[in-house]
Amino acid sequence: MMGSITRGSAKVMKGNGAHTLDKWKRKMGEQVKVFFIERGWLLFLVGFLLGRAVVLSSVSPFALSFLASVWLMRKDKSLKVMFAVVAGSITLHWHHSIYVFLAMMLFFIFAFIFHKFRNQQKLLPFFVFFASIGTRAILYSFSSDIEAYDWMLAVVESGLSAILVLIFMQSIPLLSPKRFKQSLKNEEIVCMIILLASVLTGTIGWQIYDVSLEQVLSRYLVLWLAYVGGAAIGSTVGVVTGLILSLANVASLYQMSLLAFSGLLGGLLKDGKKLGVGTGLFVGTLLIGIYGEGFEALAPSLLETSVAVLIFLLTPESWIRKLARYIPGTNEHSQQQEQYLQKVRNVTANRVDQFSQVFQALSKSFSQVQLHVEDDQDTRETDYFLSNVTEKTCQSCFKKDRCWAQNFEQTYGYMQEMMTSLDEGTFQNKRKLQVDFEKHCAKSTKVIETMNHELSFYQANKRLKKQVLESRRFVAEQLNGVSEVMGDFAKEILKERENHDLQEEEIIQALKSMGFEIEQMEIYSLDAGNVDIEMTLSFYDYKGEGAKIVAPVISEILDETIVVKQEEISPFPNGYCYFSFGSARKYVIDTGVAHAAKDGGLVSGDSYSTMELGAGKYAVAISDGMGNGERAHVESMETLRLLQQILQSGIEERVAIKSINSILSLRTTDEIFSTLDLAVVDLHDAAVKFLKIGSTPSFIKRGDQLIKIESSNLPIGIIKEFEVDVVSEELKAGDILIMMSDGIFEGPKHVENVDQWLKRKIRDMKTEDPQDIADLLLEEVVRTRSGAIEDDMTVVVAKINRNVPEWAAIPVMRNAQ
Hints:
Elements: H1 2-38, H2 41-52, H3 62-73, H4 78-92, H5 94-113, H6 120-140, H7 148-171, H8 186-201, E1 207-208, E2 211-212, H9 213-248, H10 254-268, H11 273-293, H12 298-314, H13 317-324, H14 331-393, H15 400-406, H16 408-424, H17 431-440, H18 444-494, H19 501-513, E3 517-527, E4 530-539, H20 545-558, E5 562-568, E6 575-583, E7 587-596, E8 606-614, E9 617-625, H21 629-648, H22 653-667, E10 674-682, E11 687-693, E12 698-702, E13 705-709, E14 726-730, E15 736-740, H23 742-745, H24 754-764, H25 770-784, E16 793-802
Helix pairs in contact: 2-3, 2-4, 2-8, 3-4, 3-5, 3-6, 3-7, 4-5, 5-6, 6-7, 7-8, 8-9, 9-10, 9-11, 9-12, 10-11, 11-12, 14-18, 15-16, 16-18, 18-22, 19-20, 21-22
């Protein structure tokens, strides 16, 4: 017992010690960041080294450019940076320090004179140019042996200073405490490399034994960025750094080739981690060293490379990864972008879900108000009605007290029963009630007349309040439908790509065993009926292998029919081809339509539509506008347009039809109505829903059997509120669905039982082609009327077929589980 307590205490102390160490490291890192970044001592150090930087023996374009950039970007640190630059120049030569100090003073004079100008950023390169060349002109005026070469160097120095200002202005924000950008542009990366290479020139001449400090640091910089950014960034760093160092020391011109080649090799070997990148530097040092200055200079160069690689190996991986986040193309940058996108998705989904909850709460609020209103509405309306009647009759009656004070229950019962009888129109048949009320009331005739007069107002008020309740019910259903759609949308946003390692490995193994070269494969979904796979393959001569071989192989593995949804074929041999694979529908629908306008006109009041609703659903709809001609056509087309837009938004079919009914009934005061015959087929299981609003029956032909589908609902727009009856059926492969307008169903002349006549005609048809059936049925109806078309006629025929893929699944060898 004591031992276990001691071990537990030791674990707690160890955990506390690790936590304390992490806390100390984090605190030290924050203090270092505050010291160097926020207080500006990093700018001080960079300024000191740039003050020593000289190229072409006497040209110093870095110091003035850096000070000008700091003055523009961080004015509060410009004085400290100026002292750092002057201090660095003094360590090089006193002549150099005089030039640097005078150039800075002249720059500050220009900046003070033109400080009222708004575009300081555009004027800054000109300030630097004239400050640099002006200082050289002042110094040259004290010397008598100035040649044209010196003036040329002065112009070059001034031009480089102006250019470096533009470069340093993009680099200074990277050394600032607040950076809002999460990644660097390629131009910013190059500018930062130029700044770092310029800083390294300030270390020229610093040696530890035979090891040159600028060579160690330049190779360390190439190692770091080649490891982070790959061959492109590594070679770029090598070229830029080597070029600037070779300008500072012409004797080491071969260093540019060494750094560039080492950066390229290190970037190509980055998959070998730090050792691979270090190996690339060693190989580059050996090859370029032997080629450049022979074996005598090889030993110091290898020693410098060894020191750089050693420092690189000792560099914490976390530091390198922090830098990698800012460079596009790296895994760290991609992960950070994915985290950002995930955060955006989460925020968007939360907002959508909040809106969904708001709509749901509003829907419940309307529903609750409606329930409360319906509970006591009848009692209240009756009291209002009777109070109006008694006010006009009983108030001046001498028997008022006897009726309402002494016999309240009996009087109220008579009045209520009479009100109900008058409202229902049965009062004349109730002789006993009339006789009893005449005995009870002295002004019975006046009371009955007043009730008849007030009844019209009562009924109008009742209808109005009923419309208000129906509107509330409609709004509640609409809000609830929108809430459900937004809730589903929020779930879709949050639904990330799932990992399917087992299936992915099985697909790759099967395709590789058949000789296919797979460049890339992404599995986004393996849900039944909603498979989504993208693949990039290489083909020497593509002959349709995607649909003939790859899709059947995937079908066998997933036990589901998979087809090629999209393909992009490379025009070159051995080129990479892109394929998108998805689930094939279990059923497909072939449709045929036949229609004719009244009297052979061009415009029919009937309209029809076939539409894909997404999620594997297919809808067939017929709408018949009231009457004929242009107006009926517009009304039926408007009904179908609204239906398609609402259904494709994801709202349930029943709510969609109720919405259309309310919209059309509230849109106009004209009595314009339209029927709607809607069939929604699920292509995954062939289930069908029929929603018939004032439409004629439909028929399902299954071999010799005919199934009649009908429902009783008034046309759209006649009443504000109605219940939509949904009729569900299960279709089978080979079933034929026949939908028609009333012009077909009521069209046959001299036919007593149209229902049986249609069934017989449909059953006797030998063809199963949907278009032929539609044409024959329309022709048969027209023939019964001797060629006359007395109403608009429309027939839509849809045949349900099982989807048979062009290529069968290919069996594959699977590993034993």
